[in-house]
Design a protein that fits this description.
10 strands; D-Maltodextrin-Binding Protein, domain 2; alpha/beta
Length: about 400
């Protein structure tokens, strides 16, 4: 690409005209260019020529690289009309069924439109490392996949992570109705950026052999009581759900509630391990786990599932879609927000679907506890999670 760059042009003017230049500046030692506020402040006060001189970079060589990048981005954007990228972390119980269903659906769409659909679905168990490598490292919204699916809070709302792109996302689900299980919760994003397709509920699995004279715990408030000190197992390794639990307990019961939760911790286990704790020498009385894993408890075992009377704390499963009026992308969105996908989530994974037609198989008196969009918008979620973790650890250390 033949482009002439003016050494007297400010970096901000350059990046506004050529957003493709941002990633090159970051790669060449200007990390502040990745943050819009810092870029606006820093880049408007320094010229291209001066910036390159500060870093000891050759002007002609840099401009050549920049021109190639801009030309490459332009060609990729043109080719990108025939490519749709989808990434995500799918809950382990439904990853394969969802992949198989999508593969069957996408074959027809790709053939009909000569379209390439690039998918990369990982099991949610790979966690934060994969997100940091493939998603959080993105600095240009153009590099973000057209569709991203995952559970959790920090992943989506961290203003230094995916949250910085929120204005580029749009809720394009065809149905504005929501499943009766959730109508009183207000799960719909009032700003229209995030689409919640299902939830991961946290419930109790109680070892009735360990109850003794204690009554069956029925609520989150129950497990914060002194008699449950070091008698509760928590899914610390499941960072999405554990973060959701911490945020919810902190919102409802304050700092002291988080310390009490830390005091109650006996051990941290993966949910798949929790259903076998009854055979341990000193098993916990209560294990907190995703609802799905309660079905792994063997019939006749002392492990009894309890849906919290004050609501199962939920970790949302979100579908993020970049703003785009491509009809082919809309068809993919319609698939992931369809009744078919909703039933895979609700039936195979016990992840209640927000799709209105899906029977989530829940009892009428089973409630959910949701942070709420107002609360989320008023807090820096990443900082709040770190604060909750510190208070939780304080409680454990003091017990």
């Amino acid at each position: 690409m033949s482009t002439v760059f003016d050494p007297k042009q400010t970096l901000f003017e350059l990046t506004e005209k050529f957003p493709e230049s941002i990633s090159l500046f970051v790669a060449e030692g200007f990390p502040q260019m990745a943050d819009e506020a810092k870029r606006r402040n820093f880049a408007s006060r320094i010229t291209l020529g001066h910036a390159l001189k500060l870093k000891g970079l050759d002007f002609e060589a840099f401009c050549s690289s920049l021109g190639e990048r801009i030309g490459g981005e332009a060609r990729e954007a043109q080719a990108g009309e025939d490519r749709i990228r989808i990434k995500g972390l799918l809950p382990c119980p439904v990853r394969i069924p969802l992949e198989e269903a999508f593969e069957e659906f996408s074959q027809g769409l790709q053939s009909e439109h000569q379209l390439t659909i690039e998918t990369e679905f990982q099991a949610a168990s790979v966690g934060a490392g994969w997100i940091a490598e493939h998603i959080e490292s993105i600095t240009d919204p153009g590099d973000f996949p057209e569709i991203y699916i995952s559970a959790g809070f920090e992943t989506f709302f961290d203003p230094n992570g995916i949250g910085k792109f929120r204005e580029h996302f749009q809720d394009r689900s065809a149905s504005r109705e929501i499943n009766p299980s959730f109508r009183a919760l207000g799960l719909e994003d009032p700003e229209g950026h995030y689409t919640m397709i299902a939830v991961v509920p946290a419930v109790f699995l109680v070892n009735t052999n360990e109850l003794g004279d204690l009554p069956m715990p029925q609520s989150w408030e129950d497990i914060l009581r002194p008699e449950y000190k070091k008698r509760v197992s928590l899914p610390v390794g499941d960072f999405d759900l554990f973060s959701g639990i911490l945020l919810d307990i902190g919102k409802r019961y304050g700092d002291e509630g988080l310390r009490k939760l830390g005091r109650s911790l006996s051990e941290s286990l993966h949910p798949a391990q929790m259903v076998t704790v009854g055979s341990r020498p000193k098993p916990p009385l209560v294990t907190i786990m995703p609802y799905f894993f309660t079905r792994m408890a063997r019939p006749g075992s002392p492990m009894q599932a309890v849906w919290p009377s004050d609501g199962a704390i939920i970790s949302p499963i979100f579908l993020l879609t970049k703003k785009n009026d491509d009809e082919r992308l809309q068809r993919i969105i319609d698939f992931f927000t369809s009744t078919e996908c909703g039933e895979i989530l609700a039936i195979k994974g016990l992840f209640p679907s927000t799709r209105p037609e899906v029977d989530n198989g829940l009892q009428p008196d089973w409630k959910f506890s949701w942070l709420g969009w107002d609360w989320i918008s008023e807090h820096n979620i990443a900082e709040e999670i770190r604060r909750c973790e510190r208070l939780f650890e304080e409680g454990g250390a003091a017990s």
